[in-house]
Amino acid sequence: MSKAKSQMEISVAEVVDHMKLTGSFSPALAQVVQRKVTAEAARKNGIRVTASELQKAADVFRIDQGLFKASDTEAWLKSQGISTEALEDWLETNMLIYKFKSQLERGGSQKKYLSSASVKATVRELAYQDWLAKAMSR
Question: What is the DSSP letter of 116?
């Protein structure tokens, strides 16, 4: 349970009910399920995250969050109600998903994906934005 400044108690069940009533629970649940399915597939495909990779991911996360000292990180984790283990699991899952996507990209048919109209439109727009930025800087 979490306490607000007025010492009001808020339960996890209340937060879940709020998410369900506002329509944000199902998308969050779907994301968690997708992450778990993908991480499991990555492991089944022999993908692993090394201690060094996990440390790098943690360093990047801390910098992104403005957590430059160990005490900053500990205070932030406590304020969020997150354990060090939960953060490490989340970061490891992110790395597994990243590596799995890279493996799929290497094994996939680029011709198949690049022939998609939406991908072509995105590439076309990116090329135009790149050209426009250069043209405007002249």
Answer: S
pTM score above 0.90 = no
Topology annotation, domain 2-109: Triger factor/SurA peptide-binding fold (1.10.4030)
Name the maximum alpha-carbon separation found in the chain.
59
- Tens of pLDDT, residue by residue over 64-73, are 999 999 999 9
How do the domains of the chain map onto residue ranges? 2-109
The strand pairing partners of 134, in sequence order, are none
Distance from CA of residue 32 to its chain's centroid?
10
Which residues, given as ranges, of the chain have pLDDT below 70?
A: 1-6
Write out the DSSP string of 33-87.
HHHHHHHHHHHHTT----HHHHHHHHHHHHHHHT--SHHHHHHHHHHHT--HHHH
State the Cα–Cα distance between residues 16 and 61, nearest whole angstrom.
26
Roughly what angle, to the nearest 10 degrees, separates helices 51-65 and 84-107? 110
